[in-house]
Structures are given as C-alpha cells and as structure tokens.
Amino acid sequence: MKTLRQLFGSNLQQYTMMLALIALVAVFQVISEGRMLTSSNFQNLISGNAYVLILAIGMVMVIVIGQIDLSVGSVAGFVGMCVAISIASHGLPWWVGLLLGIVLGVLIGAWHGFWVARIGIPGFITTLAGMMIFRGLVIWISRSISVPVPSEFSFFGAGYLPEWGPAFTRMNNSTLLLGLLGIGWFAWAEVKRRAKILSRGSQYPMWMTTVRILLVAAVLGYATWLFGSGRPGTSFPIPGVILVVLVIVYHVITQRTRFGRHIYAVGGNKAAAALSGVNTQRTYFLVMLNMSFLAAIAGILFVGRSTSAGPGDGTMWELDAIAAVFIGGAAVSGGIGTVVGSMIGGLVMAVLNSGLMLMGVGSDQTQVIKGLVLLVAVAFDVRNKQQGRPSIIGLLMKNSRTPQAVDKA
C-alpha cells in the first residue's frame, strides 16, 4: 500500500475514474469489434466534445467556489449567433467577429459576476436568469433561423494540424512532435518533482520515477500514433490543441498561483478565507467572468465545426459540463475539484456517447445510462468523503490482508 501511494500519489482515489475510463474504452473496443480505437473515431470524439470539455474547465472553478452556472450553454449559443450575424449581416472580417465574440463573453461574465459578487445573489439564481435571457436573445436575434459562418471558422472547429517534414515517420509529423513534447515535458516534470522530494529529506527511489514516466509515455505514445496515423489530411484536431493549451494554462492557474489558492480557500470556507485576507468578492467576480469567457470560446468552436450558428445551439450544454465536473471528483459542497479531474470526467461521458453510438443504442437510452453514471459517481464521491469510509483501493487492500495480519491488528 505504501509503495502504491508513493507511485501514484497520496490520494489513490483520484485515479478511480481514470481506471474507469480505460476500462470503458477496452469494453467498447471489444463489443464494437475494434471500431472504438480508431483514428477517425477518436479524432471525432475530441472535435465533437471539445466545447463541453472547455466549459468543464471553467465550471470546475465555479463549483469549487460553491456556486453553479446554468447559463453557459445559452451564453455559448448567443455568442456564436452574434459572431455569425456580425460577419454575415454587417460585413465584419471573420477575425473581427471572433474577437467580438470573445469580448462579448467577457462582458456577459462581468454582468454575472456583478450580481454574484456585488449584490450577493447566488450563482444558481443569477445564471438561471442568464440562461433564460440569453436563450431568448438567441431566438430573437436569429429569428429562429441558422446563420452561416465563413470557412475560416472551420479551421478552429474542425481543422487538423498540418503535415510537414519527412514521410518515413508514417504519421502526421505535427502530431508526432506534439506527442514527443508531451512525453518530454512529463519526464522533465517528474525528474524535477523527485529532486524536490529528495531536497526535503524524503526518500523517493529512482525506479518509481522511471515507472511513472514509462507508463505515461506509453499512453501518450499510443495516443500520438492513434491520432497521427489516420487517413491522409487528418491528424490531431485543432479543437484538441486549443483544449490542451487551456488545460495547461488553467491547471497552472488553479494549482500554482495565488488566485488559484484563493479559489480553493473561498470554496473551503468563505468566512475563514475573508478573515485571512482573501478578497472574496473579487474571487467570485473573476471566476464568473472567466466562465462566460470560456463559454464564448466553446460557442465559437462549435459554430466553426457546424459551419453555422443555430437558435438551438448550446441547449443542455451546461448539464454536460456539470456532469463532467462531478464525475471528475469535484465536491458538491465546493472546495474540491481539479481541471485534470474534470477532463477525465468529460472524457468518460464522451467515450460513453461514442461507445453507445457504435453499439446502436438510441439517444433516449444513452441519456438514461449517462444519468445513472453521474448518480453513481457522485454517490461514490459522497460515500468516500464521509469519515471512516475507505476507498475502493483501501477495501481491496483490507480484504487481501492475511489472517496473520488481521490477528496482529
């Protein structure tokens, strides 16, 4: 048990959903007769779910501070429609329309942040009102018809990394480079992490660092091959690149910056955070503003993928984002949750959608299954946060103890 904790970290429970994700992929790969782990399927999986995963990045921060945002789908749909109309009807260049959409998202986030931080209205009520307002505005300004966007937007929503360099690699070289950079960065981070542990006087064998690097390198290497060896003209999707950049940026923000510490402090205990000098109003305001900023990016990516903005865009997106966050281990009461965990939760939902579709399961049954998965994941989280409740790993280790060990205990 001690070795496992050193190898994977002090909280083994955080790896449960990762194991569940791997198991889901393996099961669907067998049931679908090999159609799950294909280049085209995973490229579509990333491109088709990038907008929800981007929403989940902002949503985990909102949930950590103890709030909720029900307006993100409507905001994304409204921003996408405004961008499309500004270009199609007012003749703005596509890049100006894109910048306009991002600015609009920031302004909407400031609006929500004002009511939550300054007036003190709970985020649930504020964003419920926002959901109704912006859903109505989408239908109003679009007159219930779709509006096309320029072809340049397709690059952001459905594009791929370009091809270059020698052909002997037998895969897309941009994807290969991205994968090698990912492996190299993780190896460097692990070596640096080990040096930091040793500097504190603790023991951390080199073989553990090596095993961690090799495991992650194997996963990233296979993913690189999967995305880079598809049909000509395809590679790792551009929405995936944008998602990866955002995950890295927000992981650093939430885990390595003062603002990130303030987010968790406010979510853990608002009164104690205020007494320790944290500006709680500023934290609420910036987190809500950031959520709508990411919703604007998600809306722009979606219209780029679909090549048009429609009055129904964004419907129910907020529920998918919230589900991803809770499946990824965030606490209902706030104070707990990570960007990486939310990505794992979102990928679990994405793999479920993809696998069930490959099996021919209808959308109605898919919703039932996803709802049950969400309920079980949150129930598991609540159970294991209760005092004295062991994790699955703990139960397995307990049941595997020898009679002699039990007697000694």
The total count of strands amounts to 2
Give, in order, the helices and strands: HHHHHHEHHHHHHHEHHHHH
Structural class of the secondary structure composition?
A: mainly alpha
In CATH, the architecture of the largest domain is Orthogonal Bundle
Terminal CA distance: 16 Å
* Total helical segments: 18
Strand content: under 5%
Query: Rough shape?
Result: globular
C-alpha-based Rg, rounded: 23 Å
Record the strand order, biggest sheet.
1-2
CATH topology of the largest domain: ABC transporter involved in vitamin B12 uptake, BtuC
Unreliable spans: 387-409
Q: Into how many domains do the coordinates divide? A: 2
Give the overall average pLDDT: 88
Helix coverage percent: over 70%
For the record, what CATH class of the largest domain applies?
Mainly Alpha
Q: Report the sheet with the most strands, covering strand number, pairing sense and barrel closure.
A: 2 strands, antiparallel
User: What's the assembly state of these chains?
Assistant: single chain
Commentary on this structure:
The chain has 409 residues and is an all-alpha fold. It folds into two domains: 43-159 and 238-378, ABC transporter involved in vitamin B12 uptake, BtuC; 162-236, no CATH class. 73% of the residues lie in helices and 1% in strands. The chain is built from 18 helices and two strands. It has helices at residues 2-8, 16-31, 39-64, 72-88, 94-119, 123-142, 152-158, 173-199, 206-228, 238-256, 258-268, 270-275, 280-306, 317-327, 339-358, 363-385, 392-399, 403-408; strands spanning 147-148, 308-309. The chain has a two-stranded antiparallel ribbon. Helix 2 (16-31) packs parallel to helix 15, helix 3 (39-64) crosses helix 14 and helix 4 packs parallel to helix 6. The relative contact order is 0.19.
